[in-house]
Write a structure and sequence with these properties.
Elements (H helix, E strand, L loop, with lengths): L4 H8 L3 H12 L11 H4 L3 H18 L9 H18 L16
Helix pairs in contact: 4-5
Length: 106
């Protein structure tokens, strides 16, 4: 799924430096640097707002109200998979630039 180290740290409780080291050992390259994007960097248009709202609605629907208090990585992965399916089934017009969110932007 390509989660940022911050998300893995929130889910596992492991320190970020250990996660980064493990990532490099397993993949042979360092994980992507930088912080998670802020919401205003993601939601720059109504379309992006619709995309983000869809993903978050799926996440809450799958993970329940507890996701407001604590990250549920399993629910997030299932929601992201459902989001990708919904986008594909929506058959969005190619001439309109819909931006697909990444797992780290949802």
């Amino acid at each position: 799924y390509g989660f940022r180290t911050t998300i893995i740290a929130l889910d596992t409780g492991l320190p970020i430096h250990i996660i980064r080291r493990l990532h490099k050992e397993v993949t042979g390259k360092s994980p992507c640097p930088g912080q998670l994007p802020e919401s205003d960097a993601i939601v720059k248009s109504r379309r992006a707002l619709v995309e983000g709202s869809l993903l978050m609605a799926l996440y809450v629907n799958i993970g329940g109200d507890n996701v407001y208090k604590q990250l549920n990585i399993d629910a997030l992965m299932k929601a992201y998979d459902a989001y990708l399916v919904a986008r594909e089934e929506a058959d969005l017009p190619a001439e309109i630039p819909w931006k697909k969110l990444t797992i780290n932007e949802g």
